[in-house]
Amino acid sequence: MMNxxxxxxxxxxxxxxxxxxxxxxxRAERVSFDYSPFGQIVTEAVLWxxxxxxxxxxxxxxxxxxxxxxxxxxxxxxSDPASQSRAINGIALEFYWIGFYFLSLxxxxxxxxxVFRLLIIRFRLDGTGRFSPWLRFNQAPWxxxxxxxxxxxxxxxxxIAVSAIVDVAGQAVLFTxxxxxxxxxxxxxLDRLILQQVMRRPLVAxxxxxxxxxxxxxxxxxxxxxxxxxxxxxxxxxNIEYIKLAKLAAETPAxxxxxxx
Length: 261
Hints:
Transmembrane protein; six-stranded antiparallel beta sheet; membrane; single chain; alpha+beta
């Protein structure tokens, strides 16, 4: 049993950094299970694994003068008891160094992709540019819609307004407010939208063509409370509006009396 279990355990230790790095880099809205094709998962993990092992082996050789011993690794992965014993004795002599190598490797596989992902989000590297198709979080479509990360004006919006029609006691009611946060269920389905400064009105009280701003606002009723939780499953339609404060201020006339009614 030892002849088979030991190589499998070594392979697991060698491949684990790639799976850690992949899980930290990707942004997915599903948390219960990753339904990506198995071949894609393994390919991405092995690619990450090759990158991290190459960098760590290079740093080990340059900074500490420690190099990989392929013969020792092959003996450890073999099914021959004598070869495994020699490899285990060799590892025992360098146990602390090998332990440091793997612990630092796992830490780097967790930290580096996390920082890389934050940089992509911070500098919008997934929006435009030559490498954006490879840096885009394809498993997070709601992220781009509900954060305005795909905004064509070079920066995310200052505010995001959400309007939703909800069936309340058989009557269609329009709720509108500013998006504060959003929550997914374990299957990656949008579950709740958290809004502030919410107003509502019956859908039948639609805007008239010649209505003034005051008449338009009078159609809405304020909803008391600090936060309003809107369940996505109860929304009939959903409208997203990106608001840029600088652009809005530039378009607002200095004299309110000059505003068309």
